[in-house]
Amino acid sequence: MLGAKHIGGKKGTRMPYCWPDDMVFTRLELHVEDRRCHTCGGPLTVCDHRHRRLFTLTGPVHVVCKLAHCPDRTCPTHSQTHSPEAETALAMPWWVLGWDVVCWLGHRRFARHWSVGQIRAELVDTYRIPLSDDAIGHYIQRYQQMVAARQHDPSRLAAAYADVEAVILSIDGLQPEKGHETLYVVREVTQKRVWFAEALVSSTTEEVQRLLAQAREWAERLAKPVRLWMSDKQAAFVRGIATEFPGVPHRYCANHFLRDVAKPVLAADSHAKVQMRRKVRGLRTIEREGGATQRLAALAAPVLETDEDVPVDLIQAAAPSPDVALAYCAAVRGILNDDHGGPLQPPGLRMAEALGEVQASLQRNLAAQKGGLRTTSSRG
Ligand SMILES: [Zn+2]
Description:
Layout: E1 26-31, E2 45-56, E3 59-69, H1 86-90, H2 99-111, H3 116-127, H4 133-152, H5 154-160, E4 167-174, E5 182-188, E6 193-200, H6 205-222, E7 226-231, H7 235-244, E8 250-252, H8 254-279, H9 283-289, H10 293-300, H11 312-318, H12 322-337, H13 347-376
Parallel strand pairs: 1-3, 4-7, 7-8
Antiparallel strand pairs: 2-3, 4-5, 5-6
The protein binds zinc ion.
Zinc ion binds at residues 37, 39-40, 42, 70, 72, 75, 77.
């Protein structure tokens, strides 16, 4: 099985993959495309061979690259060795997977959201490519690097911004875990692109300033004015943006604004929930006693702070059987335990509404009972 240490272009990681003895390879010979010397015009001759073994989706390949040089000792480029360009179209240097496999990996991981385990199993089952989880992880990382490099390609970036009048930029610091370095991300909002991201150990003004200067260079290279900056307005951003982008408005990011406003909203909501829970008591007693509907009435009436208390004897009639009383208890318990929802759907508000519905339901029962009484007896 291919371990992570067997791949990669870093120092000490160029160990060849241990290929099984019985693996059958398709031999592929590659020649230097331009067989004439660019300096003297003479024919190049083959001076060496480079052998590589690769996994491709169509099977293992043994690539033989015929390296060439100019045989004329008096030619200034005599000592240079030329490689076939087709080699990098098959795989990057030191990779043991061809581009087709790497693209397949990236697609399964990011478009289909497959896990590494799923990918590993599928590689073996369908393509007979045995890889370790580590190796798959490393190649997925490489796939991401390739995608990032492609998105940062200046000509591609210029094409993406050809029809854009002005750019809107945002900067944000993401800290995956407390005490870890913070990842600063500069995004362009109109095209929804991450321009670049960098992990900074310290978020000093100088460090942040460097990123902002880089953003200015990008905008200048695109020859697009910056219409607006958005951030959570921490001090380093405010100072840095004012310095690098004088005169450009710097707005509070709507998300951060909401998040900051959310804190007091949720605190108030949480307080309201405590108050409501305090008033809605005795569920367990009612459940234990079955049809103790007086308690149910006591439970529903004061929650909403209505001026008219519901008469206990009528509530007793409202939930005429123990089963109904228990059903009400279950509903109220569910309402009290429901803690879902953020600042835009405060759970306390929903709790108040739901308890109101319970009370209204009890009152409807009462009204029905009352009406029934009125028709059967002639009490006014
Ligand atoms: Zn030459």
